Amino acid sequence: MLQALRWSMPAMTPQRFVPTLVLALWLEVLEAGRHQVLPILQMDRIRTVVVLSKVREMEIDSIPKINAFAKYFILAMAVVSTAMTIWLATTIPGQDAQGRYLVIVIIAGLVLLSCLLVPYMIRVASTRFSADGVEQIVFFERGRFLATTNLKWQSVERVSYKQLAYKLFGGNSRVLIYLGCFGDYQKVADFINERLPKNAVWG
């Protein structure tokens, strides 16, 4: 701007030159200020994003997670019981009448045990906490063989606790949380208790 003004100085009258000079100087100041202020604003924005990211990471780290050993142990039990049932079924043709009867009884017992325990174990092992609520995989619920239930903390109406197990009820949802699947029982219990609504009924 000042360079353009320098070239046009001879053609200007004194009355026009002074206001034009003031305007040119003001524009130069604004341009210099913009180059200095913008990097500062950009750095502040970057710092804000970094701080928010760190806070988010801390919030995620504070959410309890299921113990990996417990999860894989439950999965292994389900796989072993299924494999055992299949293997026993393949031995039936080679058995005599008494042997077949015994094998069928064992298979029936394994199937019954699996039907009772496997859904419970998978439900407990699939527990996932969040800042909003808790989620689990469930069997034979809402007319579906396999479904996901999600219970928001503010929707919890009734709570029961017995032998390291929480049962949370709200609306049509029910969640079972077994603290034995987590590393620190007390930390998980504190996490749950802090988020339960004050009007939730215990019992």
Q: Can you give the helix content as a percent range?
A: 55-70%
Biggest sheet: strands, sense, closure?
Answer: 4 strands, mixed
Distance between the ends: 79 Å
Poorly predicted parts: 1-13, 49-60
Question: What integer value in Å does the Rg equal?
Answer: 35 Å
Strand residues, percent: 15-25%
Structural notes for this entry:
The relative contact order is 0.08. Helix 3 (68-91) packs antiparallel against helix 4. Strand 1 and strand 2 (133-141) form a beta hairpin. This protein has 2 domains: 2-60; 68-202, no CATH class. The strands form 2 sheets. The protein has a 4-stranded mixed beta sheet with strand order 6-5-4-7, with no helix packed on it. It has a 3-stranded antiparallel beta sheet with strand order 1-2-3. The chain has helices at residues 2-8, 14-62, 68-91, 97-125, 185-195; strands spanning 128-129, 133-141, 144-152, 158-162, 165-170, 173-178, 201-202. It has 203 residues and is of the alpha+beta class. The protein has 5 helices and 7 strands.
Quick summary:
The chain crosses the membrane at residues 69-89, 101-122. Keywords: Membrane, Transmembrane, Transmembrane helix. The protein is 59% helix and 19% strand.
Helix and strand layout, with pairings?
Blueprint lengths: L1 H7 L5 H49 L5 H24 L5 H29 L2 E2 L3 E9 L2 E9 L5 E5 L2 E6 L2 E6 L6 H11 L5 E2 L1
Parallel strand pairs: 4-7
Antiparallel strand pairs: 1-2, 2-3, 4-5, 5-6
Helix pairs in contact: 3-4
